[in-house]
Amino acid sequence: MKRGKKYRESLTKYDPENVYGLDEGVGIVKSLAFAKFDETVDLSVKLNLKKSQSVRDTLVLPNQFRGEKRVLVFCKSEKEKEALDAGAAFVGADDLIDKVKGGWTDFDVAVATPDMMKDVGKLGMVLGRKGLMPNPKTGTVTFDLKGALSELKKGRTEFRADKTGVVHLAVGKVSMGSDLICENVRTVVAEIKRKRPADAKGEFVRSVSVAATMGPGVWVSVGE
After folding, report:
1. Which residue from 11, 20, 120, 180 lies 20 to 30 Å from 139 (Cα-Cα)?
2. Which of 144, 147, 166 is nearest to 156 (CA)?
3. Closest CA to 43 of 195, 146, 159, 138
4. What is the spatial distance between Cα 37 and Cα 4, in angstroms, rounded to a whole number?
């Protein structure tokens, strides 16, 4: 991939092969940001996983940096008021399913009651591709809509390892203080370690890097 001039220049301002302490590494990421917008700081954690193993869960970052999420709730009429009172942006059943089936995904999170999943499950080609499919493991398939939306409003977000064993998660904005970003990183890494499969062998976390949206990655130490 051909990189722009500013990206190439940023690579000369630090050692791309070095592993930095977390505080220093986040400081480097912030200093390298060159975009005119407030870039997101992304975390990548490479795990030692077999093909049969997976890591997936949800968490609430201690320091929030995103606006309120637009939550869509698939439910039957008797649960609509509960969903709306809890702050759902979109509530419905067959009408919403048809709308999503047509390609509409103008929302951040989808929640469904269990009795809706037979029909919602047919939206895999749309929701699955965008990581929006409700899932019991992440608390987004439940009859407790009030509780689920309360957690989502607090900023509960999902993390999962991809097919290459890497967990990618946004952990802040360049405009945030380094201490706040570092606290988010430590929270995510600790939670990932807590989800280590019982049969995982050897060193579980192989590497950790942080990067701004437009900038290069900086390796940081996980042994702190």
Report:
1. 180
2. 147
3. 159
4. 17
pTM value > 0.90: no
Rounded CA Rg of the chain: 19
Of 203, 200, 197, nearest to 222 (Cα)? 203
pLDDT tens digits, residue range 158-189? 898 999 999 999 999 999 999 999 999 999 99
Q: What is the DSSP string of 43-91?
A: EEEEE---TT---EEEEE-SS--S----EEEE--HHHHHHHHHTT-SEE
- Give the Cα-Cα-Cα angle 195, 198, 201 (nearest 5 degrees): 105
| 105, 111, 115, 120 alpha-carbon torsion, rounded to 10° | 20
Q: In this predicted model, what pLDDT tens digit does every residue of 78-94 receive, in sequence order?
A: 999 999 999 999 999 99
